[in-house]
Design goal:
It is built from ten helices and eleven strands. By secondary structure, it is α+β, with helices and mostly antiparallel strands. Strand 5 (257-259) and strand 6 (265-269) form a beta hairpin. It has two domains: 3-155, Four Helix Bundle (Hemerythrin (Met), subunit A), CATH 1.20.120; 178-389, paralog of FGE (formylglycine-generating enzyme). 37% of the residues are buried.
């Protein structure tokens, strides 16, 4: 790293780490320790795990006379890295009443100080800079998870508590249009010198048939018409596994929709329970729900390759970023020539390339600067608690 690069790296490290603390600031210690379901994690765990990442993959490898902040944290806050060793069960993270939030904050402060000293001592080490950037990108992913997990947690409370009272302005919907794209041989995947995750590589050629893509996301009002038309009662619209989920969970609307005492539709949000804004993009729907809605509209979901090609050509496309992640029909699979990195860091993405689907774009909870056209988010088809929405294709 050059001196200017070292300064930028330190400033970025401090900024990202402080934002995680800021996200936890409106919450009580009780909020931060609770786990609402096995797929979600307590905020306290997110704060500790992202710190564990820097301690384990950087300090343990590069710090002279390394000593862990607490030896058992290596076990408690390992997420899924088999190469690191055993770990506390994911579904039981909410049982970790110890360490306290104060101890987790002390852990963060200790690791932050030591990373700062390492950066000062190894200002010309490109490997350190690359690992710091990976750790920051990893923490930004968890910043989004903090918000989605907090929303799910607070939604379980009959008080309908708000995470923040700063509600967004009402949305304005415009008629949905389909834009035509010629297709052809597209270059897919990350290019250039900026950061990307390994699942965005290698850049490769992909043939895409001519297609059309909706110029905006599907709104709450449009999805409500699907509900009113009996969409959740028509098996012909659904994939078999999706229909099984509808019946097993008695699904009849998106995850956070509910009716108030007067029978009006409301939506639980990070701003509390609010009247359903019909013009806002529908969110917190599974791939099954997105696919059934698309079938009802005589359309389909785009492939991830169509989405990426269109994003690079479609100046009239709206809401590609910053609203909700958009389901695609593409299975999460490696690109041609993909190879996992050596060591435990090779477990970051590659081992999850099965039984997941790709989402493109970004959401309102995605940190600034953390989205790009080649970003491949991924979740199981039945996942509903994320900020996931629908863009139609034909």
């Amino acid at each position: 790293m050059k001196p200017s690069d070292d300064f930028t790296c330190r400033r970025r490290f401090e900024s990202v780490r402080k934002r995680s603390e800021a996200l936890a600031a409106p919450l009580s210690d009780e909020d931060c320790g609770a786990q609402s379901m096995p797929d979600a994690s307590p905020v306290k765990w997110h704060l500790a795990h992202t710190t564990w990442f820097f301690e384990t993959f950087i300090l343990e490898q590069m710090e002279e006379r390394f000593q862990p902040f607490h030896p058992t944290f290596r076990f408690l806050f390992n997420s899924y890295y088999n190469g690191i060793g055993d770990r506390h069960p994911r579904a039981k993270r909410g049982l970790l009443t110890r360490p306290s939030m104060a101890e987790v904050r002390a852990y963060r402060a200790d690791v932050d100080e030591r990373i700062g000293r390492l950066l000062a001592a190894q200002a010309d080490n490109p490997q350190l800079a690359a690992l710091i950037e990976l750790g920051l990108q990893h923490e930004q992913q968890h910043q989004e998870l903090i918000l989605t997990d907090v929303q799910h947690l607070l939604a379980q409370n009959a008080l309908n508590p708000a995470y923040t009272l700063a509600a967004p302005a009402p949305a304005e919907a415009t008629p949905l249009r389909f834009l035509d794209f010629a297709g052809g041989v597209a270059q897919i995947g990350h290019a250039g010198d900026g950061f990307c995750f390994d699942n965005e590589l290698p850049r490769h050629r992909q043939f895409v048939e001519p297609f059309a893509l909706a110029d905006r996301l599907v709104t709450n009002g449009e999805y409500l018409a699907f509900i009113d038309a009996g969409g959740y009662r028509d098996a012909a619209l659904w994939l078999s596994e999706g229909w099984d989920q509808v019946n097993a969970l008695a699904l009849a609307q998106p995850m956070y929709w509910q009716r108030d005492e007067a029978g009006r539709w409301c939506e639980f949000t990070l701003h509390g329970l609010r009247p359903l804004d019909l013009a806002r993009p529908v969110t917190s729907v599974s791939l099954f729900e997105a696919d059934a809605y698309a079938n009802w509209r005589g359309a389909r979901l785009p492939t991830e390759f169509e989405w990426e090609l269109a994003e690079g050509q479609g100046e009239a496309l709206r809401q590609m970023f910053g609203h909700c992640w958009q389901w695609t029909s593409s299975s999460y699979a490696p690109y041609p020539g993909y190879a996992t990195a050596p060591g435990a860091l090779g477990e970051y993405n590659g081992k999850f390339m099965l039984n997941q689907y790709v989402l493109r774009g970004s959401s309102s909870a995605t940190p600034a600067g953390h989205s790009r056209a080649t970003y491949r988010n991924f979740f199981p088809a039945g996942a509903r608690w994320q900020f996931t929405g629908i863009r139609l294709a034909k």
